[in-house]
Every structure is written in structure tokens, then in C-alpha cells.
Amino acid sequence: MYAQVDDFVLRIGERESIELTDREMQGVVDEDLLQVALADSSSQIDGYLSGRYKLPLATVPHNLVRICCDLARYHLTSKSSVTMTEEVENRYKFCLKELENISKGVVSLSLDEEAAAESADGENTVQFFNGGNRIWERDRR
Predict the structure, then answer these.
(1) How many whole angstroms separate alpha carbon 87 and alpha carbon 105?
(2) How many Å is the Cα radius of gyration of the chain?
(3) Tens of pLDDT along 20-51?
(4) Cα separations (Å) of 22 from 31, 42, 74, 92, 133?
(5) 61 upstream amide cis, omega within 30 of 0
(6) Are 57 and 119 in contact (CB under 8 A)?
(7) Which end of the chain is more exposed for a tag (fewer CB within 10 A), N or C?
(8) Considering the entire predicted model, what is its pTM?
(9) What is the pLDDT of residue 77?
(10) Cα–Cα dist 95/83, whole Å
(11) What is the C-alpha to C-alpha distance for residues 1 and 60, in angstroms, rounded to an integer?
């Protein structure tokens, strides 16, 4: 997963985290529900990254933690009695655009050299070698 319960509460705030997850009205964050939302959001992120990076990533960049939290916040808001604000909706749309740009290579995850090389070395790599023999020549006599 790209974010943990503590990451979400730190970014969103404890009060809103409780409002979004406390279906039993206990006055606390429902960590199980929040874990599910973060797992769903992580899966959504993987859908964008899988074509460009070998998953799971060796390290999780900070922008993916933020994106995961914003996606989870949007999904939790849409399934709760909390009013969907323009800010929550705009952050969600921004995250989708950012993920799209990451998947196209427009935005970099800023992985270190080793992690980037590891990500590029996938099992589905195709390589072509010619060994120096020319197959086609202009004037073959």
C-alpha cells in the first residue's frame, strides 16, 4: 500500500478522518475501514503505474502517499454523510491527472537510479540482437 492510516490522519486531520470512517458513531477512526479505502486507492494507483514500473516499488515516493490519501478521502466522502466539497473533488481530479502524466512519463516519480533501473528491468522485456551480421544489403552479389 502507498499510504498507512497514520499518513491519512496526518494529511486529512483526525476530526475529518473520524467523520469519514466512524459508521458506528464511536468517536474514533475506524482503522479497518480506512485500511480498505487506502488499499482500494493503492490498487487504483497500481493500474496507472503497472505499464511503466515494476511493482511493487522498492520505495514509495511522497507524491504517491499524498495521491493515495486524496483518492481514499474522495472515495470515503462519496460513501459517507460528509458533504463532497469542491476541494475534495478538485484534489481527486488533480490526482487522476497526475497519475495519467506519471503513466505517460510526463511526470517522474523521482526514484533513485537503482530503483529506476530495477523498475525498467521487467520480466516482459524484449531485446533484439543482430550479432553484426547484415541480413539485408543493397547490392548483394
Answers:
(1) 26
(2) 21
(3) 999 999 999 999 999 999 999 999 999 999 98
(4) 9, 21, 16, 22, 69
(5) no
(6) yes
(7) C
(8) 0.78
(9) 97
(10) 20
(11) 9
